[in-house]
Amino acid sequence: MAKAVTSANLDQYAQDFAATPAAPALQKAVMNNGILKVAENTASKVAMTPTFSVELDTGAVANQKQSGRCWMFAALNTMRHSIQAQFKIKDFELSQNFTFFWDKFEKSNYFYENIIATADQPTDSRKVAFLLTTPQQDGGQWDMLTALIDKYGIVPKSVMPETYSSSKSSELNATLNLKLRKDAVALRKLVNDGASADDLAATKSKFLSEDYRILAYTLGNPPTKFDFEYRDDDKEYHRDADLTPKSFYDKYIGWDLDQYQSIIQAPTADKPYNHLYTVEMLGNVVGGREVRHLNLSVEDFKAAAIKQLQAGKSVWFGSDVGKESDRQLGILDTNIYDQDGLFNTSFQMTKAERLDYGQSLMTHAMVLTGVDLVDGQPTKWKVENSWGDKVGEKGYFVASDDWFDNYVYQVVINKKFLSDELNDVIKKEYDHPTLLAPWDPMGALA
């Protein structure tokens, strides 16, 4: 039987508060300054000095502005690093708006297909409710970006620059989600009324044409052919004519994206290590590359990232950036705030507990560009963010190794930096990975 809080309980709680050491002084400090300011630990600022034994020169940071495209910025940043070095183009950027356009378009089609597939379920079923909660959004994962590049290629930022809606996406998201929910009503009715496959396809095609128009108005027309002009760091002029997005990718980036593997660090009981996982209804390009996560122990997870950095290659990663972090200082550290000491209690949970109980999941993607190794062990990591150069050290952050252990959930690693045994797991399980529910935390979009 449920028990109410009694007046005797309240008297006891008030006595406990009064007996807490320094309670009046702490109460005044927190009331006037807030929790985090009072709990801030100065020692963390000293420990997180931005000096690293392994450090890549990656140039100025990008700025996603008021959009949720961090996963896209982080992935394109890893690619532009190699372009900058190979072609000597300082602070070059790839077009985040180009991939944004095609991601929105493909997510619309992906949503329609899932709506059709679940049309026999009531709208309050968990899967249909999940789909309708957010028909599409800005976020994504590495495999979703590679699916876009495989299909559409990529272009320089100069060819398809930012627009109002790419930099501030809330109006576009609200408009497109309204449209998709309205279309879902019609598609579900057609299915349940026994419409033919041809009628369904024609209706969906009409809806997609309208979606394309919305995206073209807000983001511009994605180029199909263009000239690439630039001056390199030696002031030499270059012009490359009649490129397509695919030929530009092949010539200026040329990565075999099949060689890059998403690695997750999820120490929950339902995900044994050294196995491959996918997430139901997670993706964007129908028929394109699907999400595949290899789950590793935190030791193997970090070792792979270090190998890639030591080889001079940056690392895309996904984390819960809002936890134990100071945005302005650019510090990500489990010791940055001492809330346990401030409130005389414990807020400690294991990484697995935080995932299982909804306290944490991946919220933001960034790029690892350095690591500080002491006696062969990592102590802190250099992080390239995409929030512009007004935060952190000109846009770069420092993450403690303990923060990495607790709040980093995904890295993308070239398979050559993985063991033969792990590559065998990927090959054997790729076509039949363990299927996770759509709402699994490893399906969170950065």
Automatic annotation (TrEMBL):
The keyword Protease applies. Keywords: Aminopeptidase, Hydrolase, Protease, Thiol protease. Its main location: cytoplasm. The keyword Hydrolase applies. CDD domains: Peptidase_C1B. It is found in: Cytoplasm. One of its GO terms (cellular component) is cytoplasm. GO terms for biological process: homocysteine catabolic process; proteolysis; response to toxic substance. GO terms for molecular function: cysteine-type aminopeptidase activity. The active site is at residues 70, 364, 385. InterPro entries: Papain-like_cys_pep_sf (IPR038765), Pept_cys_AS (IPR000169), Pept_his_AS (IPR025660), Peptidase_C1B (IPR004134). Belongs to the peptidase C1 family. PANTHER family: BLEOMYCIN HYDROLASE. This is Aminopeptidase. The lineage of its organism: Bacteria, Bacillati, Bacillota, Bacilli, Lactobacillales.
